[in-house]
Design a protein that fits this description.
The protein has 2 domains: 184 residues, Thiamin diphosphate (ThDP)-binding fold, Pyr/PP domains (Rossmann fold, 3-Layer(aba) Sandwich); 129 residues, Rossmann fold. Helix content is 39%, strand content 20%. It has 12 helices and 14 strands. The strands form 3 sheets. The chain has a 7-stranded mixed sheet with strand order 3-2-4-5-7-6-12, sandwiched between helices. It has a 5-stranded mixed sheet with strand order 9-11-10-13-14, with helices on both faces. Strands 1-8 form a two-stranded antiparallel sheet. Strand 4, helix 4 and strand 5 form a beta-alpha-beta unit. Helix 1 packs parallel to helix 7 and helix 8 crosses helix 12. The longest helix is centred in the N-terminal third of the chain and has 18 residues. The model has no long low-confidence stretch (mean pLDDT 94).
């Protein structure tokens, strides 16, 4: 077992898949030059091994990068393109939403469109609202796209390898803060299935559904609550679409309570979809009302104190859990 940050795990997945399949190539702004290259970051050293023919620096145009990916996938290649930051998805969305997500459907399933769009997400860096807004619910709302948000280095590597081999377009969102958080990653070849959630902590009193960097907030809250006799079960979605409803519903049936934790803003956030699934298919299991712990409905501030206010924390999650466990809602 090796210890890698999430960025290193992504780098290892890219390197292994490019060695395995000559049709795989990467493209994006600065992927082959020094602005990205650091031993902890995903594209470090790739141009040196694979050359500029397979590690392509692009113009500063997200629409062009996404268009390149769609055309290359249609031509039989397997592109992995980077759109730098999650909010820049808006600039690339015509090609991703109106073309990549729909072309396999329009072909009647006769054609495959295997492409991966990697994006960085997450607040906490003083980068401001144009770089830090989490838009995973936007992507998940688009039929034809798979949306993956890993929380651990091991999951990031296994999920990215699965995404590259998938015959459908995959939006792969990486939290920047997790690049530098080391975790165990198997050294042998493995794949992590897309569409399968993972119970990261067993518990009996309340189910907390989360993904990406908020997993670590959930772990911290769970340790504190355990000292007070409340055992939290943590379900890491890993994939928003396709959504693993079965794992969510089984956990809620076990605990009888549900809290969804995500960093994205509250209104229209993916927590609403999870709540709808539980209301429709698991309502008899609930002992108390569902709760959301999310970012507020404001642009992400650049000021460090205001940014800390924006990001959900352990105390907010603890308060939500205790409300429905101790008072019944």
């Amino acid at each position: 077992m090796q210890k890698l940050g999430l960025g290193q795990a992504v780098n290892q997945a890219l390197r292994e898949e490019m060695r395995r399949d000559p049709r795989v190539f990467i493209a994006g702004e600065g992927v082959g030059v020094g602005i990205h290259n650091s031993p902890m970051l995903p594209t470090d050293g790739l141009v040196e091994e694979f050359g500029p023919g397979r590690v392509k620096d692009t113009p500063v145009s997200e629409a062009a990068i996404a268009g390149l990916a769609v055309g290359a996938a249609e031509a039989g290649l397997r592109p992995v393109v980077e759109i730098m930051f999650n909010p820049f998805f808006t600039l690339a969305s015509d090609m991703i939403v109106n073309h990549a997500a729909k072309l396999r459907y329009l072909s009647g399933g006769k054609s495959s469109f295997p492409l991966v769009v990697r994006m960085k997400s997450g607040a906490g860096f003083g980068a401001g609202c144009q770089h830090s807004h989490n838009l995973e619910a936007w992507a998940a709302h688009c039929p034809g796209l798979k949306v993956v948000m890993p929380s651990t280095p091991a999951d990031a590597k296994g999920l990215l390898k699965s995404a590259i081999r998938d015959e459908n377009p995959v939006v792969f969102i990486e939290n920047m803060g997790l690049y530098f958080t080391p975790g165990p990653v198997p050294q042998e070849e493995y794949l992590t299935p897309i569409g399968k959630a993972d119970i990261k902590r067993q518990g009996r009193d309340v189910t907390v559904v989360t993904w990406s960097s908020m997993l670590w907030v959930a772990f911290g809250a769970a340790e504190k609550l355990a000292g007070q006799g409340i055992e939290m079960e943590i379900v890491d979605l890993r994939t928003l679409t396709p959504l693993d409803k079965e794992t969510i519903l089984a956990s809620v049936k076990k605990t009888g309570r549900l809290v969804v934790l995500h960093e994205a803003t509250r209104t229209g956030g993916f927590a609403g979809e999870i709540a709808a699934v539980v209301m429709e298919d698991g309502f008899p299991s609930l002992k108390a009302p569902f709760r959301r712990v999310t970012g507020p409905d404001i642009p992400v501030p650049a000021s460090p104190p205001l940014e800390r206010f924006y990001i959900p924390d352990e105390e907010q999650l603890i308060a939500a859990v205790k409300e429905i466990v101790e008072t019944g809602g």
